[in-house]
Amino acid sequence: MSFDKKNFTDIYQSMVADTRHRIPALSDFEEGSVVRSLFESFAYELALLYEQLDLVYRAGFIDTAEGPHLDRVVAVLGIKRNEPDFATGVVTFERDKGLNEELIIPIGTLVTTEEDETKEPPKKAYLTIEEGRLPAGQTSVEVRIQAEERGKQMVTEAETVIVMPRPVPGIKAIVNKKPIRFLGRDRETDEELRQRAKQALLASGRASVTSIENALFGMPGVREVRVKEDFPEEGQAESGKFGIIEVYVDGLTNQNAPLLRERIDQVRAAGVYVVLKPAIAIHLEAVLQIEVDPRIRAEERLKLEDEVAQAVEGLVEGLDMGEALLFSQLTSQVLKVNGVKDIPNLQLTTFREDDSEASLARGSVTLTRTNKQRAITVPANTPLQTNLGQEFLTVAEAQFQEKQDTVQVEVKATRAGRAGELVRTGEAIGWETFRTSDIDISVRNDQPIRIARTAYGLPDRRIEVQILERLVPETIRVASEQKPLPVWVQIKLNDPANATAAVRQRIEQAVQEFFNALKPGESFTKADLETRLKKFKSIGDFSLRLVAFPFQNEAAQDVYEVRVSFIEKPEAKIIFVYASRLELTGQLRLVLPLTAGDQEKREAMGAARQAIRDYIDSVAPEEDIDLEKVQAAAAQVEKVLRVEFKPEDCGLIDADGNPVDKRVKDRAVGVAAFEKVFLSETKFIIEA
User: How far apart are CA 462 and CA 602, in angstroms?
Assistant: First the structure.
């Protein structure tokens, strides 16, 4: 049965035709006549009634009901419309300087923006969704927050969440350093609700892919669901994983995982094991060059660069599982930022991070031995470890021939993803010595050990991902002008007789001339600079070390080749000429939480050693080593509660291990001309 709706014209014409047939005397239907006016009034009211009856009729069917009427129809199936998710972000809580004890920020702590009547809502409120712990000695802690109300209207810009209506004792200030974003799903539309209700009918029998997908779609925070079944090809039944299915959920977190597993158990078939997984993350690293008005001041440029980075990050975070990133979308999003005129160049890099063999970081290291009397073999899968606790395995065996002191070997990380990467290189990272065939072997990496990456440029136009993958922003760096690439140039004169002020001045001048001659984006090698310096015979024999700090990666890279991106120009930050290598000795103890295990202690000790090494490496020529900064560097390591350190126990030794007297004074170590201090690997003891 269907409802035949009539409109005003049809009703009026029907009334006129019927009247002329039944009452011929009523014949004046001209505009303005009494008869026509009466007929049109009745026709209009009847047309309204037909429209209302049509709404009532359509409100009873899933394909035609809308709004609240559709909500009532699907309620028969026990289905409710999905409400929008919550905006989320991170707030930094800063300690009051007067207190130095452990502080607890409880779950549910209220933070808000300032009231602004021009915005809707005028004041936005958020609650912490995890407990924040601020250990003694630590000045700030980041805590995740969630909006009190659902919906996109609760997003806010960076540095706007600054009010704490109910102050936490010991907390001086709060701020959101990044914008509060809406990354979940929006309120379910009528069409989406119709489709879900129909899927629910199809899945009512349960024990099907559709039933699992539909069951999870209704859960909070779930943006997309894909079910993967491993059906082997014909003749390869033994390779199949029968009875196991993988469910990929875009929006899976540690918080909602138990609820999702419980919901799956309600609809899965008996004997089927379900593996719940997040969408496979394809991490995105981006470097963008933007063109802005040249009249914009430097501080405004930095703010503009940050706004563009946030816009790109928001665009990528909003992509669904399996959705490609179109460069046209990216360009449009960037140009929406007020003040941006163009994107002359960009470089995007992606890498996959999961538990597969393909996401293991790989690279090569140099193995060096001191005893060269006989040939030895370093077996495959030999474990190697850095001072930071990162572990690697040799991929194949390495052969030392008789009289051979070094050999290259490929290695892979033991931990998948970025946790296994080693960006630091050369003397910027220390490795543990290991023994093979009763011979000590040292390790050095001259290139980063990284996950395989795929690069994209403007001609590529898009970045495609597979149906189970999702792009995730990793680092977004934006430059509105040429950026400096700081390089530390360290030159050791092998003949102390050449260590004169005139030689140093000549070296510094030659290095500066070399860097000034480089063009933006021009890479160079150590050999290029060595060739320039060797023109001066008075320098004599020397060794050269370059430590670069690229714009894309702030980690120190002790490199043979300084690779320069299109937005950078190298500059000599520190030129350090020395002839005497001295080593700092001493001892410090890290106080960690009582729950810290052996592995955490080793990692903390390695990180502390690396932090101290980085500080000493940054000291300028003839600048004293500040022992308070040595202690502070160790104290900044994660999970370190306190550092026990006595400056008077420190000292210097020369290359032969002999003490250098009278250098420690007023919590500082004096450094003379043409001397450079390094952290002793064996005589600076770090305990935990």
Answer: 43
